[in-house]
Design brief:
255 residues, alpha+beta, L-fuculose-1-phosphate Aldolase, eight-stranded mixed beta sheet, 7 helices, 41% helix, binds zinc ion
Amino acid sequence: MTSGMSAELKTDLDELAAACRVLEMEGHGDRIWGHMALRDPDGRGFWMKRAGVALGEIHDSRDFVLLDFNGRKQAGDGKSHSEWPIHSEIMKKRPDVIASSHTHPFYACVYSACEEPLPTVVARSGIQPYLPPRYTDTSELIRKPEQGRAMAEALGDGTAVLLRNHGIVTCGTTIPEPVLVGIALEKMCREALVVGGSGFKWSWPSPEEMAAKRKGGIGIIKYDSLWAYYRRKLARAEALGEPLIGTQPVSMDSL
Ligand SMILES: [Zn+2]
């Protein structure tokens, strides 16, 4: 069903597949759950990871289905995840968003249950979300467009939102951005949980320091140096035979 796909779109979806595998490599995998999506360049909707396989098993452009903004499948083989409104509602509200991600990384899932705003323990580059909002309406799957809309409302014009007792959603203007934001957010949640449980007195970086860091990080997203590092790390993991990361497409017949 994906025949007729432009070479450019195929290249982008192959990159999106690598982005899914990077998420798996970086601890965002949760068995067969979690997904990424890419806005269709022709305005038909968005390409979403197919259901039934892990993020680490997403091999190339064939592992995505094209859904319109009402969740109806337009192209691609395989089933779609029921949480498609996460992506449709962000992309409808945010014309700047090209790619989005929803995952269940361990520390961010734990932090999603915490009612205090996520503090910054270690200040890093601008990829790190600053006081990310929390969507609190429900801990259930986001299967209805109205739930997706409320979640997109909570996200606002940011790049990350914690989903209460559930997981995280990230987005960006390039394919790598939601991955890099998600990795940074998971690290932040781990640091916050460790310092919070340590019993030590601790201090936050000042808002001025944080603003300077955020400004400095813009170049990293733009010039892709951090992304290039994760692609090299992924290539090494694949060469070594990391079991969480597949190097062959999963046959549709096995699902
Ligand atoms: Zn979920």
